[in-house]
Specification:
The protein has 387 residues and is mainly α. It has two domains: 8-98, no CATH class; 103-386, no CATH class. It is 70% helix and 0% strand. It has 21 helices and no strands. The protein has helices spanning 8-13, 28-32, 44-52, 55-60, 63-66, 72-76, 83-98, 103-109, 111-132, 148-151, 154-185, 194-199, 201-210, 213-216, 224-230, 232-255, 257-260, 271-296, 307-331, 335-359, 364-386.
């Protein structure tokens, strides 16, 4: 018999859930949801599990990750139980349950922990620069640029990047493995043949690279122009622009820093600068797009914001703006402006990556495609069992 948690509602509200207990199981959310079908009572099933406090069943479920929050369920809910916001809070909650360190739970439920972690990491970076930075020379390169690698040698920074990337990968992958244990290994309903993991793996790559379910999570009855008007189609475009810009910048910083942090001033059309400009534009546009909608609160998906949403947007915006300003100051020969802003840029960049990638918002970029992958694996295994 499933064990209920009478305090689960209070716990979930710490992750952003609103008044989901107002649900009286009318089924309107399921009727309007484009993901619902004859076999899936979506999202009503997750609402009922939450109301009943069936924590273990929720942890074994992948359905919260299937929802990309089009907002229709909350818009048409007669009780204003906000099922869409509940699904969002469940994703935050599941992130904290996959994380074996417990940091996600603290970061999502305590502003003191989140702000404290950001400030602590920023001060560590500041201290490292104070004690270990190179000469702050005012001598410029023959092309008139700042000698940034004299102040912050790229080999030293790259070593720090690789250490950080290794740690982030370890935490994120171990949390995904914990997710795998919960939804597949401990799932007694289906036994997955080993080969199925390989036959379905390509879908993981496709969904991670495109995040195309953001475009699928809407009514197929709407026309292209209707999607543009409502912003649903735009949401996928902006999200893809934001995600691809982040991945491009992260790849450049971690894998090609020797090429990216250079004292040579390339022409504007050089790939190094074009990639940097694309990342800057994508990140800036994405942050402004989501921030404006959250300020205006006109769209259902932007009416309710968790504190971590704003912190994420703020860190991403500061990282992007300081990064492009460092570039401008460097190529126009402004030494001290370059050095000081470079330090501040790293002080913002490192906390954003360390906190957001394995423990908070950016981790959803990995959990979503893996959830689709695990769901496909389970479906394929069930089909094999029926043969």
């Amino acid at each position: 018999m499933a064990k209920t948690d009478l305090q689960f509602g209070k716990t979930l509200k710490k992750y952003g859930a609103i008044d989901f207990n107002a649900c009286y199981n009318c089924g309107t959310c399921t009727a309007v949801c484009s993901l619902s079908n004859e076999d899936e009572s979506f999202p009503r099933e997750m609402v009922r599990l939450s109301v009943l406090g069936l924590d273990k069943e929720i942890q074994r479920s992948l359905k919260p990750w299937s929802c990309y929050y089009c907002g229709d369920c909350s818009t048409y809910c007669p009780q204003e139980a906000q099922p869409g916001e509940l699904m969002m809070s469940l994703r935050r909650y599941l992130t904290s349950r996959y994380d074996w360190t417990g940091l996600s739970r603290k970061l999502y439920t305590s502003k003191v922990w989140e702000f404290g972690s950001i400030i602590f990491l920023a001060l560590v970076i500041l201290a490292l620069f104070i004690f270990y930075h190179g000469p702050m020379t005012t001598e410029l390169t023959p092309e008139g640029g700042v000698k940034i690698n004299t102040f912050a040698p790229w080999k030293t920074i790259e070593m720090g990047d690789w250490i950080m990337a290794g740690l982030l990968s370890f935490f994120l992958l171990s949390n995904i493995f914990n997710m795998f244990l919960k939804v597949i290994v401990r799932n007694k309903k289906v036994k997955v043949p080993f080969k199925v993991y390989f036959t379905e793996f390509w879908k993981l790559i496709v969904h991670f690279a495109t995040q195309k379910r953001f475009a699928d999570c809407e009514s197929n009855k709407e026309s292209f122009f209707s999607k543009l008007k409502t912003g649903k189609f735009n949401y996928w475009i902006v999200h893809f622009l934001l995600m691809s810009s982040y991945v491009a910048l992260f790849t450049m910083i971690v894998g090609f820093l020797y090429w990216f942090q250079t004292e040579e001033i390339h022409e504007w059309w050089h790939p190094q600068r074009l990639i940097g400009y694309y990342a800057t534009f994508g990140l800036t546009f994405g942050v402004i797009y989501f921030a404006v909608h959250r300020f205006r609160k006109k769209r259902q998906t932007s009416k309710h914001s968790h504190s971590t949403d704003w912190i994420f947007l703020t860190l991403l915006f500061l990282t992007t703006i300081t990064g492009i300003l460092v570039h401008i100051f460097r190529i126009y020969g402004m030494p001290y402006e370059t050095y000081y802003l470079y330090v501040f840029h790293i002080m913002v960049l490192v906390p954003m990556l360390v906190i957001e990638v394995p423990f908070s918002k950016w981790s959803h970029l990995a959990y979503r495609p893996f959830a689709i992958y695990f769901s496909n694996v389970i479906s394929a295994a069930e089909k094999l069992q029926k043969k």
